[in-house]
Amino acid sequence: MSEQTPRGGTKLGLPTPGDVVAPIAMQRRTFSFTGWRLAVLISGLIAVVSLVRIVTGAQQIDSAGTIAAAIGFAIPIGMAGLGGLWSERSGVVNIGLEGMMILGTWGAGWAGTTWGPWWGLLAGTVLGGIGAVIHAIATVTFGVDQIVSGVAINLLGLGATQYLSTLVWPNQPTQSGTIPPIPTFTLPWFSDRMKDIADQGWFFVSDVASLLRAITYDVPYTTVIAVLLLPLTFFILWRTSFGLRTRSCGEAPHAAESLGVNVYYHKYFAVIVSGFLAGFGGAVLATVLSGIYREGQTQGLGFIGLAAMIFGNWRVGGLAAGALLFGYTQAIQLRSGEAVHALLLVVAALLVLMAVLFFYQRKTRSGVIALIVAGLVFAWYATTETLPDQVAYVTPYVATLLVLSLASQRLRMPAADGRPYIKGQDH
User: Fold this and answer.
1) pTM for the complete prediction?
2) Confidence of residue 326 (pLDDT cuts 50, 70, 90)
3) CA-based angle 158:164:168, to the nearest 5?
4) Which fold has domain 59-335?
């Protein structure tokens, strides 16, 4: 049922015209892809990467192994970003996701080595939720500045895990023992056939086959869980009355309060869910990607998750795309230096396409800038044969800054995001 009809407003307990529903409804026009546009966009991206692969001979740029690694890295990033989306849609900024991820990695290391990987995932998720409870008490109940509280949670997560490690692993407090692996699934005949097609090196077809091979061969069940959490979040937040009330708390909490919405309850619920998701992401990082807990292994993935959420404009689909982008930049710098070098050519080609789009939209200045940058990137590619290891290492973080700078012109955060809420006082 539409959120914009009077009938729907009556059923949800919120009026259609007014301070609550109007800003929420406007978000539908901010950032959306129809099915065919998304298909064209993905197909075009695959075609560009495929052409670069053939021209440069950098087979690792989109091999099944690279794509699988990108998905693996995208899971913790996406879970942190999804946690940030839940929290900020309710109006609470949560930069403490990094600390909650750290708690999740430690919980996975402790319980995973003691009782098994599934218990490790559960423990990591719960510990992330405990960190979120602290953040919710500080920000929602006591009105502490949300940025300050988030920084405190990050410091608390790091300090608490260091202390607990000295108690649990006194001889080697910086890491745990090996965590047993999570079971995986494979579609035998289909994945083998996709591998055969990918090995042919055909334009576009082999690249699609590599993608299909990556998502059907040796896939951890945690990946399935994480992927299912995306549409589940979308359904809850955008297709249920509970989700509408939660989002109204991030748009106009005092107007929602005047209509009987329990703002404190919805904020608490959303923040705690964000901690569970961040903790789960940290647990996946330790259990699936590393097979061990190590001190400092998150390396800022919680903040990259926030960047993915902002890139996605506080929407589930955009968040998933951002997580995959950042996961790819993480994966490719570990797979092949040649592939990182070839990626410069991909960036140059995409900038040219962006310039064409800008000129079509009559944004001449932006088009010229995109062409100039494309020329510089191509010159960098043409005058070098490899990139220094240091450049490859910082690729994910450079990509984060570039994406945020490109996305900044179309962002629309929840109207009351980060604002303190006190019941009965409309500031």
Assistant:
1) 0.88
2) confident
3) 140
4) ABC transporter involved in vitamin B12 uptake, BtuC (1.10.3470)
